[in-house]
Amino acid sequence: MSVLYISYDGLADNLGRAQIIPYITGLSKKMGLRFNILTFEKAGCLKDAALISSIKNELTLAGARWFPLTYHKRPALIATAYDLAQGLITGIAIAKKDRIEFIHGRSFIGSVIAFFIRKILKCKVILDVRGFWPEERVEAGIWKEGGWLYKASKAIEMMLVSSAEEIIMLTALGRDEFKKRYAGLELNITVIPTCVDIDKPIRQEAPIAFLERLRRDGCFVITYIGSVSTWYMPDEMFKFFNTVKGMFKKSFFLVLTAETGYLKNRTGGGEDMSILSLSNDLVPQYLRASKVGLAFYKPGYSRIACCPTKLGEYLNSGIPVIINAGIGDSEQIIAGENVGVVITDFSEEEYERAARKIQELQSEGDVLRHRCVAAAKKYFSLNIGIDRYQSVYTRILAA
Q: What CATH homologous superfamily does 209-380 map to?
């Protein structure tokens, strides 16, 4: 049996390698499916011959075929229209040649391509919603609320939702909101959060002198991983760190991001801070030297459908989390499992409360670490994600 998987996110991106490839290889092994993967890759990534070769080899071993197209960014509307056209043409050719059973459309643009192929070839579709995309564009300041782009995207969303056989969402809160939004439709929605491979061994290397020094000095290490622009709040994170410095003398802020230039322009740095760009394999070592993982997001309605990948990564490394309220299901998980702090606003009082709570939790030692890892396994295990995708796939094949 053959599947067409369409994603507007590239496999060569960190997100693609962490949140697409593991699911595909896992489902290929469990279900014997042959995946045809159509993605849109950044030009710079396509020039990395070693990376592209590594991805192709991994997918080939799983019996999957990869069709990478070039992603275009500017001018925005024309570039996206061009990508839609090339995705549609390529997708139809793949679907016809391999006689696919169904299409898995990941993200808004990927699902739009899947929808039009469905109209032409009369095949079944899974709508993999990665968030409330039209609202995200407005809240990020990219689109005007009530503007024609927003209205058009909402009309397209209705079209996608009403035609899909199965829908996948990242959070239970997002699912419940979607059901209210489309109360007149019978929707088959499965919640699959952004998962992590909790069984993946940590890359063993010689001790990193920098981390050894932080441990030896007994530093209160606060770590942030991931992007720092658009949806994220680096200025508030620096304010939080300054508050913590006033409470604990040996405090250190470790930021692991590919956007090092953007961040360094916003802060003068200092001896108590390090901003680094690392390979994914090295990140777990740095997390294990940390006391707490930080995740501040710009508040907004669309955030209820967000499931931060970093949440599972922090917990799987045995460290608690500080996150602001309103971010997907994180509040219920963190409070329910006692693995961190949810702040209600970005005030110095809340920062002090969060720091004191983390200090209290850290006094539990290995008990806290085991509880964090157990929470990661309970909510964010890759095996859970693969099993839920398998259930969705099984239903759509039987329909």
A: Glycogen Phosphorylase B; (3.40.50.2000)
Sheet-wide strand order for 124-128: 65-70, 34-41, 2-7, 102-106, 124-128, 166-169, 189-191
CATH superfamily entry for domain 2-195+381-398: Glycogen Phosphorylase B; (3.40.50.2000)
What is the Rg, in whole angstroms, of the alpha carbon atoms belonging to the chain? 22
**Eight-class DSSP state of 196:** B
DSSP 8-state symbol, 130:
-
Amino acid at 243: T
Tell me whether residue 162 is exposed, middle or buried, using C-beta atoms within 10 angstroms of its C-beta: 0 to 12, 13 to 18, 19 or more.
exposed
Bridge partners (DSSP) listed for residue 293:
223, 321
Q: What is the pLDDT of residues 170-209, one digit of tens each?
A: 999 999 999 999 999 999 999 999 999 998 877 666 568 8
- Both structure tokens of 84: 């839609």
Task: Tell me which amino acid residue 348 is.
Answer: E
Q: Residue 190 is inside which H or E element, if any? A: strand 189-191
CA distances from 305 to 93, 165, 308, 320, 345 (A): 33, 20, 10, 22, 19
The position carrying tokens 């508040």 is 299
Q: In 182-225, which residue ranges form alpha helices assigned H by DSSP?
A: 209-216
Determine which helix (DSSP H) or strand (DSSP E) holds 175, and give its type and residue range: helix 172-181
Give CA separation, 134 vs 86, 209, 280, in Å: 22, 46, 30
Cis peptide before 75 (omega within 30 of 0): yes
Instruction: Count, in order, helices (H) and strands (E) of the chain.
Output: 18, 13
* pTM to 2 decimal places: 0.93
| Residue 166 backbone phi and psi in degrees, to 5 | -135, 145
Q: Is the dihedral of CA 41, 42, 47, 50 positive or negative?
A: negative
Tens of pLDDT, residues 263-284: 877 776 678 999 999 888 888 8
